[in-house]
Structure formats: structure tokens, C-alpha cells
Amino acid sequence: MKMSIAVVGGMLAVGGLFIAGCTKHQGGPVDGSSANLNQMAQIQAQALADPFVQSDQATFSDQSLQPTDYGSLGKVDAPVTPFRWARFITGVTSTVTTTILPGDTMAVAHIEKIMTGTFRIKGTEGGVDTVISKPFTDKAVRNLLLRKVNLKDTSVWRPTASSLVDGATNPPPADNQIAITQVQVFSPTDTVTITDPTSFYLRYRWMPFPFHDGERKDCPEFKGGDKVMIQATVVSASADTDLVALRYGFGFGLAIGRRQHMTLISQTKNGDGTFTRVYQATWYSHFFTGFFNAGVDAVTRGTLYDDALPYSASWWGIPYRVY
């Protein structure tokens, strides 16, 4: 049996937020009792309150038109005459689908966000500075694992692991121009390779729970100053290289965060008109503690350089913690 719960939230900094939810129970039918309704509402609330989920919009949106390389986390090397671009997210609709797994001790929250806004590019056309605006709709998907925790007088649900967030231009086939297919994170203590972003769960090691079957690795954790390298594999329909940027340190109202270009290190013709390219970037973890997403943001060359072509992008967000 499937049940639906919907609530309307308040305004976010990036626009209005509408939250809807539905639930499924794999351990048997779900009745309409207040206890079950409360349980489902609690799971949905916990999922949307998860700090990695909350930082999705902040990671992939900008506050102003900026060169590709910008930010307050250390020195930024920018081109001599940079063009500027920004993704302005003005509306977000979030839907949470909750599935309680057999045994009634674990649950999966499937979170979909439809983000709308305007992608703006400031450049030179015919020797004259101009700003081009392209409307966009992106769909972002993330899954959370939650565990039921028994306290003295009640049971509560707590997130224990998160997948990556997988974002792309919506609806299909607008998303077929560019796609991230793999991300690797190389840290001082571990290497994480992800090819299926919404099925690869990163365990919250700081929570006092054992590994669940669905959890693949511990969530990356860094100390301030740690050197981190990220490689992203991108399949593109463009014969010219696209723009791939790394975003990190954004969120929670802090005036920090950085966007930097990723360097192309290899390219292969696939024989079907597409190209597989690998991009790489190295960064040093900031000293601001908390929970963040390291975002790989791939935007087609046509999005940036051709005013007649629509916006098309693919982006993944990798959860990480700084302690």
C-alpha cells in the first residue's frame, strides 16, 4: 500500500520550496494509523534536514556572475580576460519517497528536487560586452539510508548514509548532450570510485552504527589543509571540450566556497560521435568544519559559447565532512 503526505515549507534563500512525500512499506501493508503517519513524516523530515541534502542548492548555485575560477578559499588563478557565468536557482520542488525495509529497522528516503532558474553568461559579442540568459530546469536525485534508533520511551529515525546527488538537465532528451559517468576521490587516507551515484552509499562514520549491506565506503572526512584530488569522467556529444568545474565549501549561509576549473587530462573518441574525457582538479580542504558537497559541474560548450543553443549540464555532488 502506498500513502502520501504533503506539506508546504517556507522560502529558501534560492527561492520557494515545495515539499511532497509518499511512502512504501516492504515489510507489509501500512495502515492509516497516526503512529504510522507520524513515522513516515519523521523519516521525511529527517531526510530533508540532513546537512548534505540541505547544501545541494548552495553547492550548485551562484550569487553573482563570476569567472570560472572564483572563491574565498585561498588564491584563485583566473584568466587575464575571463568571461563570467553563473547558475541562479530561483525555485526548488522537493519530493521524498520513503521505503521501510524488511525488519522495520532501516528505511530508504529517495529525494528528488526539481530546480528551476536562469543560467547567465557575460561575454563579448562583436566586441561588445553582453549578458545572455538561458532558462533551465535541472532534476537532482539523492538517496539516504536511515536507521530506527530506540530511545527510552520512543523510537526515532536517523540518517546513517547518503548516496551522491545526481543532477542533470530535465526533462530528457535535454540531458543527452553531456553526462558524468565516473568520479574518483583521492584523499590522504582513501580512494573512492563511483560509477552509480545514487546507489553508492557513503556511511556516516561519526554515527555509532555498524555497516549496513547497502553502504559501500565511509563518507570522506578531511582535516583542514588536507590535499584532495578529484577525477571526473565525462561523455560528451561535443567535438570541442566542455567546461567542467569543481565546487566545494558552499553552504549554510557562510561566505565561503570556491569554484575552480578542472583540467582535461585525457580524451578518447568513442566512434559514435561522442567523446570520453577525463578531467582533474586538486584542492586543499578548508578549515571551516561541517558537512559539505564536493560538486563536479559539467556544462556543454554550447551552453557557454552559443547563444542559440539551450542550457545542458550534468553534475554530481560527493558528500564530505571537515572536522
Describe it for me?
- The protein has 323 residues and is mostly beta strands.
- The protein has one domain (3-322).
- The protein is 9% helix and 54% strand.
- It is built from 4 helices and 20 strands.
- The chain has a 15-stranded mixed beta sheet that branches. The protein has a 5-stranded antiparallel beta sheet with strand order 10-9-14-18-17, with no helix packed on it.
- A hairpin with a 2-residue loop joins strand 1 and strand 2 (15-25).
- It is globular, with a radius of gyration of 20 Å.
- The model is unreliable at 1-19, 27-33 and 74-82 (pLDDT under 50).
Short structural description:
The chain is mostly beta strands.
Mean pLDDT reading: 84
Low-confidence segments, ≥5 residues, pLDDT <50?
Answer: 1-19, 27-33, 74-82
The span between the termini is 42 Å
Query: Order of SSEs, N→C?
Result: EEHHHEEEEEEEEEEEEEEEEEHE
Computed CA radius of gyration, to the nearest angstrom: 20 Å
State the total count of DSSP E strands: 20
Oligomeric state: single chain
Classification by helices and strands: mainly beta
What's the overall geometry? globular
Individual helix count:
4
| Fraction of residues in H or I helices | under 10%
| Percent of residues in beta strands | over 45%
Our count of domains comes out at 1
Please give the largest β-sheet: 15 strands, mixed
